[in-house]
Amino acid sequence: MNRKLFGFLVLFLGGMILFAGGGQQSTPSGSVSSSVYSSVVTAPGEFPIVKSSYTMKIFAIQPATIENFVTNELTLAYEKRTGVKIEWEVAPGNAGAERRNLSLVSGDYPDIYLGSSITKEDEIIYGSQGVFLPLNRLIEMYSPNVIESFEEIPYTKSLITAPDGNIYSLPMMSTAIHTQYPNKLWMNSTWLKNLNLKEPATTEEFYQVLRAFKDRDPNGNGSGRNIIPFFCTDNKGSHFVTFFMNSFIQCDQDLRYVTDDEKIQFAFDKPLFREGLRYIRRLVSEGLIDETSFSAAGEQLRRIADNPGDMILGSTVQLSPSGFMDQNGEKQRHYNSVAPLAGPNGVRSAIYNPSAFITTGAFVITKNMKNPEVACRWIDYFYTWEGALEARIGRENHEWYRAGPNELSYSGLPARWGKLTAISSVQNVCWSQWGMGQFNRHDRQTASNDIYIPEGLEKRLFDATSINYMPYMPKKSIPPLYISSDVVRRINQPLNDVRNYVQESIVRFATGDLNLDRDWDSYVANYQRMGVNDILTAYQGAYDSFLKNR
């Protein structure tokens, strides 16, 4: 089992991950014009990192998990260790994006934007204007741990390289593989046992299970009333609609796919997509999918799943059981993951997000930074596993410890660390789950062999993903695309029009307001008039650029 699991990880980390860029390529540049090492900083790996005291100005968006950046124990300890004092400009979380954008537009730049969700469009605009410094040469000279982290996840560098060949931001990196498979089916396995049913493997078997849940009193209360075989929150089509659709036609959460001859296509006008809608319509018409799933909020799903009386929920689609149930409760122990369903033509694909490990825009240096090499030395430690643990978990031998030689992680591989104490939801010890640096989850010692308690959730998700979902990873995937700002402006309105129209039509077809035979042709004709060809042309240009330059 461990060898097989390790094989999955190797295949995953070394597999084909696609990155698309747009525009013309140029020779990568950087702020370091020669190979002469800076006289301001010490050698990589040494502390303090500067030869005399230094101050940097950092803009950050306040996360809910951190009490105060200025007085935070990690902040104070790292200032002492590095010799670099931080002047913080912290924007409230609910106004963070607005304050960041105002800073960019006004020209009142900090030295560094850290954990501020700088977008790819921002990188292209402000990188080309010289506001954001290219990091290529700086990383080469001053950030060996960043380089090593790129080697550990080989496609990282491609994902963060802008169309002009420059790297303008460093990413937040995580190896929690379950986040790459966001749409997982969770089913009440106790009900399956009560009704002597096997776990469904096909769309028809799933239909029969839902039918049995509805008709055969699975919770044993004698009434069979109030049973909800399937309930979900659709989140504009990104949850259960795309999950079921991948039993008919492989597509991503934006309903796109790549053909064998490397062409990007939309799935929502294809005959197989219509057959997927016909299947969903069947489930809705027979009361097997609660119709309010198309408009429900997350709170409604949680109320149903954690119903205070008997269990009434048969199944749902979510990233994690923590998304719909209290992980300290008893009911969540009855729900287990089910693999993607095979459709009538044998299609069986998982929704897969290849870039979930990599969140760009976490660390950006502006032209106001007098010595950018200081910033690169400063951030480099957080791309080591010790630095990442200190930033995200807390202090060694307080919140975490180094695992012994015989300890195993929840992935079945040798463990490197384990938790000692849980961090409260709001704390001032570390920077918690704040977005920067690298964090390897799969090398953590499992906190419990009981996967049905909060301490065992990561193992529960790892097992669900590696066993049930990784085997159905699609052959080709579309990551976030670097598209130039002028093209974005040109396609933004058509893209919104098409997306809204398709989402509305999916609901109308599924609920019977539109007929899949009588109204299909007019549906296709309507969205084609909204500029869908321009959208596909933009996507294809970005994708072709990647194929040319990889």
How would you describe this protein?
This protein has 2 domains: 2-19 and 42-178 and 357-471, D-Maltodextrin-Binding Protein, domain 2 (3-Layer(aba) Sandwich); 182-351 and 483-550, Periplasmic binding protein-like II (D-Maltodextrin-Binding Protein, domain 2, 3-Layer(aba) Sandwich). It starts with a helix and ends with a helix. Strands 3-2-4-11-5-14 form a 6-stranded mixed beta sheet. It has a 3-stranded antiparallel beta sheet with strand order 9-6-10. Residues 1-34 have low confidence and may be disordered. Helix 11 (271-285) packs across helix 16. The chain has 18 helices and 15 strands. The protein is α/β, with parallel strands linked by helices. It has helices at 2-14, 73-82, 96-106, 120-128, 136-142, 144-152, 156-159, 189-194, 203-215, 240-245, 271-285, 298-305, 372-380, 385-392, 457-469, 485-511, 520-528, 532-549, and strands at 20-21, 54-61, 84-91, 112-114, 170-174, 184-188, 256-258, 264-266, 315-318, 335-338, 358-365, 400-402, 417-419, 437-439, 481-482.
CATH topology of the largest domain: D-Maltodextrin-Binding Protein, domain 2
Q: How many domains in all?
A: 2
The percent range for helix content is 25-40%
Q: Which structural class is indicated by helix and strand composition?
A: alpha/beta
What is the second-level CATH architecture of the largest domain?
3-Layer(aba) Sandwich
Sheet of most strands: 6 strands, mixed
Beta-strand percentage range: 5-15%
- Measured on Cα atoms, how large is the radius of gyration? 25 Å
> Unreliable segments (pLDDT under 50, ≥5 consecutive)?
1-34
Average of pLDDT:
88
Number of strands: 15
| Strand order in space, largest sheet | 3-2-4-11-5-14
Which CATH class of the largest domain applies here? Answer: Alpha Beta
**Globular, elongated, flat, extended or rod-shaped: what is the shape?**
globular
Number of helices: 18
How widely separated are the two ends?
A: 35 Å
Q: What would you give as the CATH superfamily of the largest domain?
A: Periplasmic binding protein-like II
